[in-house]
Amino acid sequence: MENISLNPVKSKKAYMQIVEGILNSIHENKIEYGDKLYSEPELTKMLNVSRPTLREALRVLEFLGIVTVSPRKGIRINKPDMTDSYMPLIYMLMFEKTTELELFELRRAIQIAMAEAAARNRSEEDLHVLEEIIKNHKEHINEDYEIFARLDYDFHQQVVKCSGNDMCFKLMETLNILMKKQMVETIYNLPVEDRKLTVNLHERVYESIRDQKPEQARENMQEHMERPYRFYKNK
User: Fold this and answer.
1) Residue 212: CA count within 13 A, CB half-sphere
2) What H or E segment, with its residue span, contains residue 70?
3) Where is the HTH gntR-type domain (predicted)?
4) By the 8 A CB rule, do 151 and 136 touch?
5) Which of 11, 16, 17, 120 has the greatest number of C-beta atoms within 10 Å?
6) pLDDT tens per residue, range 35-90
7) Domain check: are 222 and 175 in the same one?
């Protein structure tokens, strides 16, 4: 196990930040299954949290099957087991060392299919939310890249929500956690003109969903996902 960089947390949901930090350490290959984590006293000091907060995080990780907490053996990372029905996909993908391109190809396939489904199934309420996201994106083209990246995330998640497919919505959330760093990286140095093109493509997807044109929605989303797809293929 490499030195894990876990930052002190300050939040009402501090235990979830601990969970995310450990998951990120697994994804970045800083922890391998079978590794023993720091002791509870060491972790509480490192994270600047109370023992109850740490134990809440450990309960979540233990429930998901990610760690085993033993009074004698301490805290250990479990080996993923396909027979465990509760094992989250995110954990399996981390230890399978799935490539960025493979993750993006899955995300791309879901987005294209869900854009088509959204044009058939969207409700007026979901459509209104998507419209507001587009408006905000237009207003923040010149803003900090993190704001632009968050709005990009909101748009793609809302398209899936418009489809009415809860399973794909959860799967997209999983993929976004795994790809967060890479997704922000693609936007970090994006010129303003390219940002405008991104928002324009978002608007075209929105319009085809609004007008309930499934094939057009599919084609527009496919065109939109083509450039980042080339980016990942050429990395």
Assistant:
1) 5
2) strand 67-70
3) 12-80
4) yes
5) 17
6) 888 888 888 888 888 989 999 888 888 877 788 888 777 888 887 654 444 355 66
7) yes
- In angstroms, the Cα distances linking 41 to 23, 47, 87 are 20, 10, 28
As a whole number, mean pLDDT of residues 219-225 equals: 95
- Residue whose tokens read 């876990």: 6
Same domain, 214 and 141: yes
Instruction: Transcribe 78-112 into DSSP letters.
Output: PPP-TT-TT--HHHHHHHTT--HHHHHHHHHHHHH
Residues 171 and 83 in one domain: no
CA angle 86, 87, 93 (to 5 degrees): 150
The H or E element containing residue 142 is none
Backbone angles phi, psi at 70, to 5 degrees: -130, 135
Instruction: Supply the range of the domain harboring residue 132.
Output: 99-233
**Is residue 220 a part of any domain in this protein?**
yes
Q: Kindly report, residue by residue over 184-203, the tens digit of the pLDDT.
A: 777 777 788 888 999 999 99
